[in-house]
Fold these 2 entries.
Entry 1:
Amino acid sequence: MSSERLILETKQLRRAFSSPGGKVEVLKGVDLRIREGEILAIQGPSGVGKSTLLNILGLLDDPTGGDLFFYHENGRATNSTRISGKGRAALRNDLLGFVFQFYHLLPDVNVVENVMLPTMMRCSWWRYGRRKKEVRERAMQLLARVGITDRATHKPSTLSGGERQRAAIARALMNRPRLLLCDEPTGNLDMETSEQIHELFTELNETLGSTILIVTHDTHLAAQSHRQLTMIDGRFDTPSVAATVTE
Amino acid sequence: MKYQLFLTRKYLMSRFIPWAAVIAVAFGVFALVTVLSVMEGFKVETRKHIRGSLAHLMVGGPSDAAMIESDDFDERVLAVEHVEAIAPFVSAAGLFKTHSGVQRCMLRGVDPIAEAKVGDFRRYVLRESEVLQLVGNRASQEIHRLPESREPMSDDEVSYLFSLESRRKLAERIGYKGFQREQPPQPVIVGIEAVRAGEVALGQIINISSFSPLTNKALVGNFLVVGAFQMGSYDEDRSAMFLPLRAAQEYLDLYDERVQEYRYTGLSVRLDDYANAEEVGEHIRDHVIPHAPKNTYLGVLTWEDQRRNLLTAVDIEKLILTWIMMLIVGFAGATVFLILTLLVIEKTRDLGVVRSLGATSNGVVGIFLCLGCILVTLGLVIGLVTGWLFVTNINEIHDWIYATTGWRLFPPDIYYFTKIPVAFKPLDLLITLGSANVFGLIGSLIPAIWASRQDPIKALRHE
C-alpha cells in the first residue's frame, strides 16, 4: 500500500525537559520518514521517548532541537518551527488524526457528535450550517465502517472499551487525515478486542489508504505493520532510517 | 464559534452548577434594578411632592414678618416675564394641645384662591367624604391612597371651606351652641395623618399656641378644624395646618402699627415653566427687590433651594446604594469566575482533546467566554424581567404581605410616602447592564484565559 511520497520527516529531532535534578534529554536525535499509505509501528520499553515523539509529531509539543517537516500533497515541505499556533492547530485538524490509549471521547457529547467534532472545528459557521446533514452522514458512515452505528446516539460512558476505541478511530478519520497517530491504541483493551482493532487498522489502510503511525507495546499489533521501529534511549536502535525497514 | 457554542450547550445541559451562576447574576441584577428603581422613585416623588407643596419661587426675608401688604412689591413681581401667578403667605411654628399631650405644628396662612394658582392646593385639600373614606377604612389596603382620577376641588369648594357659613353649619352639626349669632372660631385645615393619629378631628376646636414674629408676644387662639389635606408627604400631612391669610395675620399679631398695614412672610410665585426659575429669580433679586425700600433684606429661593439639604441627601443616598448594590453584582461576577474555574478543572482533559482535534488556544478561550456570556446574559435577562415585574407590583406585594401577616414593610409614619415610589431611568438601566456585563466578562475571561494556557499534553493526562 505504501508509496514513496513522504508525509512527514524528522531530522535529528531532540527534546529535553528541565527537572529539579537537571536537564533530561528524552529524544536524542531522531531521524524518521513516514511514507504515504504505510503502517508504521514504533516499539520500545517505557520511558524511551515514544510518546514524546508522538506528541511532537502531532504538534502538541515542540522539539528543543532538530527539524520536523510536513510534506504537502504537492510535495512542498513545511518546517514545524515556522508554523504559527493557529497554523499548527489547522494542521492537527486537517492533516492529523489522534487515537489515544484512553480513547478521550468527550463524555458530555454522544458518539456521533464526538465524531463530527473535528469537522465542526474546521468549517466556518455558515458552511457548517449548510453542511450539517452531510457531516452527520459522513460521521454515520464512519461509525458504520468501525461497526458501531447502533451506538451513535449513546454517551461514551455507556460504551465498552472496544466500542469507545472504535468511536475514537472514527473521530480521527473524520477529516480524512493524511496521518493517523495512535498512542497505545490497544493498551487498554482485552485480547479479542485488540485483535478487532488490528483488523480495523489494516482494513482502513487497505480500503482508505490511511497512513498510520502506531506507538505500541503490543508485539502482535506491531508485527502486522509494514514497518517496525524500536526506540532505545531516545533514538531508534538503527542509525539509518532506510535500514529500519523490516519488511 | 460553532464548536464553542456546541460544547457550551452540552456543558450547560449536562450539569446544574453553571446555573448557579445564572441565579447569582439574576439575583444581583434583580437587587440592583429594585434598589435603583425605588431610589429613583424616591427622588422623583420627593421632588414632585416638594414641587406640589411649594411654589416655583419663594420671595421672602429672614423674618416671618418681612413683607408689608401696602407695597406694590407683589405687583412688580407679577409683572416680571414668565411669572404667571403670585400668592402671599404667612408661616409660623406653633403648638397645639391634644388629648394625649402637646404636638408641634407649622401654621401657614394662605389666600386659598391665590394659593391654588401657585401650587397644588386644590388637589390636596380633601372633601369631607374623602376624609371619612381615608380615615374610616383603616383596615383597608387602599387606606393611604386617593385614586389618581380624583377630581380636584373647585375654587368655590375651597372658598366655601374657609367661609363663615361653612363653619356655622359644621358647628351646628357637631352640636356647638351659640355660633349662629357669634362668630365661630377661625377655620383651620389639618393634615390627614394628624386626623389618622387621632390628634385632631373634623369639627374639633383646637387650641394653638405660638409667638408673634413681629411683636414676639406669646399667643393663644382657638380654631375650628373644617377640613383636611393630603400632600402625600408624611411630615407635612402630620404637622402642617392651613388657615386663611387674614386670620393668620390677626392671630399672629402681624398688624404693624408703624406703617398701619399687615405684614406677611413672603410671596409664592408660579412660573410658566420651572426651567426659568433661575433666570426669573435673578431678575427679581437684581431688579425688583432693590426697589422695595422697606424690604431691603429680601431674597429669592427656588423650591429646590428651599429643600436643598433633603434633595442632596436623597441623591447621595441613591449614589451610595448604587455602589453597594454593584458589590452584589460584583459578587455574582465572582460566582461566575468560581464556577467557570471549577469547570475548567473538571474539563481539563476535554481541553486537551479539543486541542488535539485542532482547536486553537483562542478557540478554548471562546468556549469559556461563550459559556460565561450565556450565563451572564441569562442572569441579566432573568434579573431584569423579575426585577421589573417586582418593582411594578411592589405596592401590591407590600399590601399582600400586610394583609396576610399584618407586617407593614413600608410604614408611612417612618418613610416619607404613603406608597413605595418606583421610577425607571435609562441611565439606571445602563448602570445595571454595564456593571453586570463588566463583572461577568471579568469573571469569564480569567478562567477562559487560564483554560487556554493549559498544556494539551498535561491536559490529556489529567485524571
Entry 2:
Amino acid sequence: MVEVNTVFFMKIHINGEQKEIAHGLNIAGLLDELQIRPGRVVVELNRTIISREVQESTSLKDGDVLEIVHFVGGG
Amino acid sequence: MQDVFNLGEKVYQSRLIVGTGKYKNFEETKKAIEVSGAEIVTVAVRRVNITDPNKENLLDYLSPKKYTILPNTAGCYTAEDAVRTCRLAREAGVGKMVKLEVIGDDRTLYPDVPATLEAAKILVKEGFIVLPYITDDPITAQRLQDIGCAAVMPLAAPIGSGLGIRNPYNIRIILEQASVPVIVDAGVGTASDAAIAMELGCHGVLMNTAIAGARDPILMAEAMRLGIEAGRKAYLAGRIGKKLYATASSPLEGVLA
C-alpha cells in the first residue's frame, strides 16, 4: 500500500534554525546525525524536556521546535 | 576547630565560588580554578552550536566529580525563562543547586527583584536548592530567605564592574538578619574586596570577571584565594575597634628620662 501524502523530509526548528530532516527520525537519531554526544546535552522538544532514556522512542514531526543546550563558561 | 562552609547539602573547605566565563580557553579556566581552590563553579546554559557540535565541552575540563557545578540563569529577563533554564540545567545531571538571576536591564545587569522572588518560589517548590543573586537590600534578602532559598547573594557592585563593596552597611544588616549563608556575588575587583566581604562576616564570595579579566588570571586566582582566607581569619579573630586617637603599643613606664 502506498501512502498518498508520503513526506520524505520534514522541517523542524533546532536552536532557532530551520532544518530539513528525514521523516520519522527520532531524537537519538538526530543527535547522532548532528554528531552531538548525548551525555553532555539536554534536549527540549516543544518546551518539554526529553530525558535521555526516551530520546530513542521520541519521534520528531513536521514543525517541531527543538532546543539542544549544554553548559558553557559563565559567572 | 575546623572552619567549614555549609551550603545546600554539602560541606566545603573553600569559601570562594568562581565563574567559568571570559577565560582565554578551557585550559586557562581549569588552571585558574585549580589555583583559586574553589570547589563550586558556576556555568551558563546555552544552545549547542549545531553546525560545529564537536567543540570541546567545558565539563571535559571541570569534572562534576571534582567540582560542584552551579548552573546560572544569566541572560534570563523573566521568571519563566529562569525557571525553564533551571529545569534544563537539572536535567544535565549535575545536581539541583542553581544560581538564580533574573536580570532587570542590560546596562546595569541589576536583578529584577519581583521576578526573582516569583522564580524562587517556583524553584523551591520544585525541590531546587536556590541561590539568588539580589541587590544589597535587606528586605529582599529576608523575603528570599522566607521563601526557602538556601543562601542569599547580594551584589557588592554591578556585575563585572570591579567597584568592590559599595554598601558594607547594607551587607551588615543582611548578615545580621540572615539565617542562611550570605554570599557576596558580583562587583569584586581585587583581593582586598574579597577580604573586606569576608571581614564583614559574609560566608562566601562569588566572582568571575575579577579573576578572568585580570592581566594574569592564574596569579589573581591565587590572590583571591588568599584574600578570602585572610578576610575569613580576620573575621574569626575579631578585629580591634576603630578609634580616632592613638594608643601607644609600647609601655609608657621605664621611658628614659
